[in-house]
Specification:
By secondary structure, the protein is mostly beta strands. The chain is about 5% helix and about 40% strand. The chain has a single domain, classed as Beta Barrel (Sortase, Chain: A).
Length: about 210
């Protein structure tokens, strides 16, 4: 299955340090990617698994990620919100924001695109502070009104905020992928300064469990 890379539309300078999101308005085929029933090992090989249960796509409502100390509700953050804020800026330090401005960005066993969740990191307690402590193989769950999806960490990357919207790894249209995005504060950075970089944790869908009727 081909990975399509969306043309990126910069949403503006971010006040508190998350990142702009790609807009899916044109595509360029780059490479192959696993389907939602496959996962990628650290050496790049594909581990094929089977999603035995079907869970229709629906908006995310909760994120649990034990390795990062995350267990919180998810709120929608629209393209209109991003335009009003001058970029994606979750409203509170404990907010987990699902960006709904990308076509198909819904979790489910038949997902057609990447799900983007944003949260703050800061020198004070903030919801995504623990992202820098996760490792490949760690698992997270995303709940919806239709079921619970399990995702496994494949890759953790950092980049300058100025490079975020140009990075094809971020913009790739990958079914069954979850991207957790926050700011990244290098060691020694002034505690009062805004973080210059972003951290992105990529996870891939490895399990789906429908809610009982």
């Amino acid at each position: 299955m081909a990975v399509a890379v969306a043309a990126v539309a910069l949403l503006g300078t971010l006040v508190a340090g998350c990142a702009p999101l790609p807009q899916r308005d044109s595509t360029l085929t780059l490479t192959d990617a696993p389907s939602p029933s496959e996962s990628v090992a650290g050496d790049g090989s594909v581990n094929v698994g089977v999603l035995t249960d079907a869970v229709p796509v629906a908006p995310p409502t909760h994120l649990t990620f034990p390795a990062a100390g995350i267990d919180g509700d998810v709120d929608e953050y629209t393209a209109a919100d991003a335009e009003a804020d001058g970029g994606i800026n979750p409203p509170r330090l404990d907010s987990i924001s699902w960006y709904s401005g990308v076509e198909g960005a819904l979790p489910g066993s038949d997902a057609t695109n990447t799900v983007y969740l944003f949260g703050h990191t800061w020198t004070e307690p903030a919801v995504f502070n623990g992202l820098r402590d996760v490792a490949a193989g760690d698992e997270a769950t995303v709940s919806t009104e239709r079921g619970v999806m399990t995702y496994r960490v494949e890759e953790i990357i950092t980049m300058s905020k100025s490079d975020f919207s140009e990075d094809p790894r971020v913009a790739a249209v990958v079914p069954g992928r979850l991207a957790l995005v926050s700011c990244y504060r290098p060691g020694g950075l002034d505690a009062e300064a805004h973080a210059p970089d972003n951290i992105v944790v990529f996870l891939h869908l490895v399990g789906a469990r429908p809610l009982a009727d």
